[in-house]
């Protein structure tokens, strides 16, 4: 007799073992890394999603807070083949439902074939298939969660001072990972973190050298205030962005974004720089893409499916990446992004403009 159920949009109800009790719902997605479960589970980009781990054993090196990318677990639920007790206890303490003993190979194929789908979860001694189906019936589509930025951003400014007198960064927190802040800090940039809907006047009062739009959950179309910020400062202050940040900047310069079938979530996504011919291995976690880069130039593409992974403007001093250059988890091929954007900030101009 199972004590955990996952109701899928296909009508199927999967059975499993409850590792952390609860009833919830969310957009079902998968990620493929063998490691990095602490970083993924605390990445605000996964807000309102049910995260399935393709790798069969999750938790085999424990749980340590110093690896966390935010102050809490963000997925609404977790699905795995096997979760260790360390991770199960962590999720219980966080109040996040978790189900294992699921054939995640089969489930990942379902998601690949059917696309990211809504699902309902019921786990624990009172769980039933009907309760999972009830959760599925109230699960919103990701693009309909218009206030998702409020769920992950900050209410007030937070300042992260760096040693030295590097450029000042105004980071717009749409669900930022901590390692993005630390990647800027350790390169000498004082980072001032603002709410996703901060008024332009607060940024003007700081007079920063760089406007940085962070990663984050949900549909980029639901970050109108952040997009307006980009439109306001475009051409006045150099602008950088990661993942959701690239999508918001593209929307701000006459571009377009759209939902992908099932997205890119892993640490082995190859990206080609079309200017140099170099291929780097990247960490990715996105379910939307830039379908039209507008006034930006696409500089890097995903080798697997040609989707835009880098978009820049020399004239408007913009450098953005769809992947996560900070890794955490993942390969360190792309850390140079932070040097490039801070060079742009220090010079007040895109690096190619200063050659
Ligand atoms: N990691 C992110 O910033 C994700 C961006 C956006 N929410 C997407 O899914 O495409």
UniProtKB/TrEMBL annotation:
EC main group: ligase
Active site: 243, 324, 326
Keyword Nucleotide-binding: yes
Listed pathway(s): Amino-acid biosynthesis; L-arginine biosynthesis; carbamoyl phosphate from bicarbonate: step 1/1; Pyrimidine metabolism; UMP biosynthesis via de novo pathway; (S)-dihydroorotate from bicarbonate: step 1/3
Carbamoyl-phosphate synthase small subunit N-terminal domain sequence ranges: 2-122
EC number, as in UniProt: 6.3.5.5
Reaction catalysed by this enzyme: hydrogencarbonate + L-glutamine + 2 ATP + H2O = carbamoyl phosphate + L-glutamate + 2 ADP + phosphate + 2 H(+); L-glutamine + H2O = L-glutamate + NH4(+)
Region CPSase, annotated ranges: 1-167
Source organism superkingdom: Archaea
Matching SMART domains: CPSase_sm_chain (SM01097)
Gene3D superfamilies: 3.40.50.880, Carbamoyl-phosphate synthase small subunit, N-terminal domain
One term of GO molecular function: ATP binding
Binding residues for L-glutamine: 45, 216, 218, 244, 247, 285, 287-288
Any matching Pfam family: CPSase_sm_chain
Record's keyword terms, sorted: Amino-acid biosynthesis, Arginine biosynthesis, ATP-binding, Glutamine amidotransferase, Ligase, Nucleotide-binding, Pyrimidine biosynthesis
InterPro entries per record: Anth_synth/Amidotransfase, CarbamoylP_synth_ssu, CarbamoylP_synth_ssu_N, CarbP_synth_ssu_N_sf, Class_I_gatase-like, CPSase_GATase1, GATASE
GO BP, sorted A to Z: 'de novo' pyrimidine nucleobase biosynthetic process; 'de novo' UMP biosynthetic process; glutamine metabolic process; L-arginine biosynthetic process
Assembly mode: Composed of two chains; the small (or glutamine) chain promotes the hydrolysis of glutamine to ammonia, which is used by the large (or ammonia) chain to synthesize carbamoyl phosphate. Tetramer of heterodimers (alpha,beta)4.
Role noted for this protein: Small subunit of the glutamine-dependent carbamoyl phosphate synthetase (CPSase). CPSase catalyzes the formation of carbamoyl phosphate from the ammonia moiety of glutamine, carbonate, and phosphate donated by ATP, constituting the first step of 2 biosynthetic pathways, one leading to arginine and/or urea and the other to pyrimidine nucleotides. The small subunit (glutamine amidotransferase) binds and cleaves glutamine to supply the large subunit with the substrate ammonia.
Family membership: Belongs to the CarA family.
Protein name: Carbamoyl phosphate synthase small chain
Source species: Halodesulfurarchaeum formicicum
Species lineage: Archaea, Methanobacteriati, Methanobacteriota, Stenosarchaea group, Halobacteria
